[in-house]
Design goal:
The structure holds 2 protein chains of 2 kinds.
Chain A: E1 3-13, E2 18-27, E3 30-35, E4 48-50, E5 55-58, E6 60-65, H1 78-88, E7 90-95, H2 106-113, E8 125-131, H3 144-149, E9 154-156, H4 165-178, E10 181-184, H5 189-192, E11 197-198, H6 201-206, E12 210-211, H7 213-230, E13 233-236, H8 242-253, E14 258-263, H9 290-302, E15 307-309, H10 317-320, H11 337-346, H12 352-356, H13 361-366, E16 382-392, E17 411-421, E18 424-428, H14 429-436
Parallel strand pairs in A: 1-4, 1-5, 6-7, 7-8, 8-9, 9-10, 10-13, 11-12, 13-14, 14-15
Antiparallel strand pairs in A: 1-2, 2-3, 5-16, 16-17, 17-18
Chain B: H1 27-45, E1 58-63, H2 68-80, E2 84-89, H3 97-110, E3 115-120, H4 125-130, E4 136-142, H5 148-162, E5 169-173, H6 180-191, E6 195-199, E7 216-218, H7 221-225, E8 230-233, H8 249-256, H9 260-263, E9 271-273, H10 286-289, H11 296-315
Parallel strand pairs in B: 1-2, 1-3, 3-4, 5-6, 5-8, 6-7, 8-9
The chains are: A alpha/beta, B alpha/beta.
Amino acid sequence: MTALTITGARLLDPASGTDEIGGIMVVDGQISKVGPDVTAGSAMGGPVIDAKGLCLSPGLVDLRVKTGEPGEEHRETLATASAAAAAGGATTLVLMPDTRPVIGDAALVTHLRAPVPLHGSPTVRLEVAGALTVDLAGKAMAEMGLMAEAGAVFFSNGDEPVTDPVVLKRAMAYGASQGVLIASRPDTPALRGNGVMNSGGFAARLGLSGIPKEAEWIGAARDILLAEVTGCRLLLDQVSTPRTLDLVADAKARGVNVYASVAAHHLFFNEMDVGDYLTYCKVNPPFRSEADRLALVEGVKAGVIDAVVSAHDPQPPETKRLPISEASFGAAGLETTLSAMMSLVEAGHLSLLEALKPLTVTPADLIGRQQGRLAVGAPADLILFDPFAPWKCKREHLRSRSTNSPFDGRLLQGQVMRTILAGVTVFDRAAERAAAD
Amino acid sequence: MTAAPQPGDTAARFNHPHLLGLHGLHRLDIETILDLADRYAGLARAGRRGPPRLKDKTVINLFFENSTRTMSSFEIAAKRLGADVANMAVAQSSVNKGETLIDTAMTLNAMKPDVIVIRHSASGGVKLLSRKVDCAVINAGDGTHEHPTQGLLDTLTIRRNKGQIEGLKVVICGDVVHSRVARSTTYALHHLGARVHLCGPKTLLPGDAHDWGAERVSPDFEMALDGADVVMMLRLQLERMDGAYLPSRREYFHFYGLTRDRLARAASDAIVMHPGPMNRGIEIESAIADGEQSVITQQVEMGVAVRMAVLDLLAGAAP
């Protein structure tokens, strides 16, 4: 039996609405007791950590992470992504299927969930989103049933929607008979065209082609209607406009099983941050207006948005150090997700529990996993963090192999001090600092 | 129950000019055909031909879609009743199909046949033709609509094995939405009181199958199999596999293939059926197709008997 006790923490559990001072006991990787009664005296052996008033919450469950493994390890490996995740407080990562080869069969799903440590052992739980269509080409549905049996938590067509509605409808109908969750990027590629940033006055002034909001609206409306017709569970993967939220809220009110995610950077930045042609701010969907950003924050608060994701997409200099129209989309985000959310808490937009809920219990429930809550019997995937510790994000300090972070140079709030996976500390900032001194 | 009909005394019992489908038929109509077919099956087993009820009559098999099995079955049935048979396999022209169809019908009608047996790839194609001719028409399969003699032979096979249809749990699994067999068989079994469960992935299940008389329509094959008396597997067309309606053949077999483990969920005396031709290893494991619960070859045998009965009822000489 291995045990660990943490005392004197501010327990934050969005699942139960708990926000109180107390402690937690962990036995054999699972939470065995939690609450104000847990003190140093109640420890059943094993180390006792005095949290000294730090916040203790479930580790983050991140539903959208890309690495370069397999196939593009120069961008990111599972090991470097894991290190970044641990430092950022994420303990479960859902890997996107757009790797080389595409994650399109049960064998690859099994392999990635329990990877052979080719590049070092990961320090997070790895979950897998399987390909929705063969090679993500949008033509023929992939082996969803077999991949789901191997543990794939949902199915996605990667960064591109399935443009052919017949293919999408059949995939959703088939997915519905398998009971799976299908994630779709609400987007219309023809309308997006060669767009670089949000369509509008600022893009016009910069001389950049825009990505119109209707590209997202039409995609979202189509996906929702097909989910309703087929009875499929649908996750709209990264929304960026308030009108999309209206579509989601309306569908939810009708009883359609539709969920929405937003990338943390969309809650922090707006289109003006593209500023002087910053390619690190080139993401799809693009950063929208300030009013749109605030509406997304409201959507998180109201629960219309179910999950906040990092949308971590490591891009090396050779794809980012280019004129913005030629640069790739995507931002590194594993180490800044929690801080982006804490900045919203600090600004008074969200309570701590409101900020943590779409990072923990709701995404865990969406993928049918037990973590993401401080409940007896749940996996002891925990973080200790200081919600208001100031720090400056410097990309050379990021642990990702690719450091294309739009937060580079920003002053942020909130830092993870310790990350615990199944009762084992996988990141300890104090020890890391001591080692550096 | 009325007295079982004897070959030769049934002409007045089936009051329809054609057999285009089972949907509109009465339970008594179906029982009349089955009872007579049962007699013909008995005769065949005794090594006897049928009575010459179609002597001096002409039956034309007009197949716009290839099917050696069904055409042979109709040909043998007609010949056992003494009919003259002409087989016409019409190559389908891709242009002006409708016009060709009606022209062909008028041409054949002028030859004064007594029965035309028609298979066509378009749903409703046989009905269209039946309006243009003066003789009896038997639908040998039209598109994804109906295949009434298949529905009847399935029902007869079940009745002979189980003694009755009423109350039986029958699972029909596979490409239901594109299957004329599933429609005809469900109608017949429902008329006779069976509890039909239609099963398959949602991409291959129709939205309105409850209207067919199915008790349950579900993608959960294993649940459907629990306690089933009859398990009928449908043929999966190759063009439906490989990504269009299904991810792959192996995934289909994994979730919907009839294996020994799955069949163990059905009643211990359950029978296994397939309209043929089978895709072994895709919808059915070979050991089951050839096993002792399989009545697949009996279905073929009953096919001839059912077709004899239908030909007799539509065109047999008055007693």
